[in-house]
Amino acid sequence: MNILIIGAPGTGKGTMSEKLIEKYGIVHVSTGDMLRESVKNGTEVGKKAHGYMERGELVPDEVIHDIILERFAQKDMENGILMDGYPRTLAQAEDLDTILASLGKKVDCVLNLELDEQVLIGRITGRRTCPNCKAIYHIQNMPPKVEGICDICGSQLVTRKDDTVESLRVRLDAYHESTKDVIGYYEKQGIVKNINADQSVEKVFEDITEALGECND
Ligand SMILES: [Zn+2]
Predict the structure, then answer these.
(1) pLDDT of residue 186
(2) Predicted local confidence at residue 143, as pLDDT
(3) Could you give the angle at which helices 90-102 and 61-72 cross, rounded to 10 degrees?
(4) N or C: which end of the chain has fewer CB within 10 A?
(5) 27 C-alpha vs ligand 1 centroid, how far in Å?
(6) Total structural domains within the chain
(7) What CATH number is given to the structural domain containing 188?
(8) Are 194 and 114 in contact, with CB atoms under 8 Å apart?
(9) Catalytic residue, candidates 71, 123, 127, 128
(10) What is residue 123's predicted lDDT score, i.e. its pLDDT?
(11) Radius of gyration, alpha carbons of the chain
(12) Active site residue 128
């Protein structure tokens, strides 16, 4: 089964991806990973991509296309693919369909993790990080034993620059702007499943499993 997972920062997309990989034996792909891999393997298209990256330029869509085609044709993809962070635009979504069709595959299910903006802001801005050992806390959900102090190493906890309301707003706006066309595109195919991410990890994953069952019918 080929799945696309979509979710704003703070919706638990990473956790759900890990659980999906474990349960279904599918391969997780992001364009960043695929890019690095093809550059490392020194393939023809990898060399091309490397040129753009070295010049500090954005790797163009047609190169991304070739990289995806190369990766998706590999043997380990047969169980299924979990796509994350791609496609980001309508053009990429259409292109992805073409790539998959040429390999006799298709997107079977789009999981759209939904979370109320206020809840999301609470999740992210409540995070505290230890600059020393990188442990992560949350002022409500997972507070340290002593306020502001890391349980593990005793360092003073900090709020990451990305975890402020202002920074999050910018990221959320960009997220909604880039995903709304993609979600609309797959809605027309009738394969979008909206998942309520404001539940326990177990319940969210249960809903995902159920949604995948419906997509597979
Ligand atoms: Zn620490």
Answers:
(1) 97
(2) 95
(3) 30
(4) C
(5) 33
(6) 1
(7) 3.40.50.300
(8) yes
(9) 127
(10) 86
(11) 19
(12) no
